[in-house]
Amino acid sequence: MALLEDLNWRHAVKAYDATKKVSKEAIDKIVEAARLAPTSSGLQPFQVLVVENQDLKEKLVKGALNPECMRDCSHVLIFAGWDRYTAERIDKVYDYTTAERGLPQGRFNSYTDMLKKMYLAQPAEENFVHIARQTYIALGLSLAQAAELKVDSTPVEGFDNSVVDEILALDKLGLKSVSLMYVGYADTPNDWIAPMKKVRIPKAEFVVEFK
Q1: What pTM value is reported for the model?
Q2: CATH number of the domain to which 140 belongs
Q3: Is 1's pLDDT higher than 80?
Q4: What secondary structure, in 3-state letters, does the chain show?
């Protein structure tokens, strides 16, 4: 029941204490949870960028819908997906996988050929929709790991992607931002949502069983 207790503990924090910083050890664990997330075909088509530098956060603030949270949180995690699938990216992942498993190179050629035929024929926009969905799995696991560590967090889609992408020059990395995660410790007196009852859809309405 520990995971459920952790998830019941957490909430999307609305105000952070700028004087409190999350340890590097905790941040590393939160990011590691994202790295271990399952992804379609094991391609891991995204990266997590960790922003602690206050000057850089101040620059990013202009693209945020909740600027105080971005400014005052300890770290901003950016979940950024590949701008599209390419043959080179697919091969790099599977070459690494086969090497790590001690298998002969080309062991998965038939599978990677299928992936290339499917993804490379798609427009980049369609590719990115699929890639973006993978990042949300990682975001969810990072939120859960933060909760287990009793580190406060906020998942964020309310930001201007173009601002984040430009400031971090993500195009040079072949990436596009998808979502953010604010990490830190709540400024409890100003975190207006904290005293409110946590509300979820009733289980009877949420679960549909086919027996």
Answers
A1: 0.95
A2: 3.40.109.10
A3: no
A4: CHHHHHHHHCCECCCECCCCCCCHHHHHHHHHHHHCCCCHHHCCCEEEEEECCHHHHHHHHHHECCHHHHHHCCEEEEEEEECCCCHHHHHHHHHHHHHHCCCCCCCCHHHHHHHHHHHCCCCHHHHHHHHHHHHHHHHHHHHHHHHHCCCEEEEECCECHHHHHHHCCHHHHCEEEEEEEEEECECHHHCCCCCCCCCCCCHHHHCCCCC
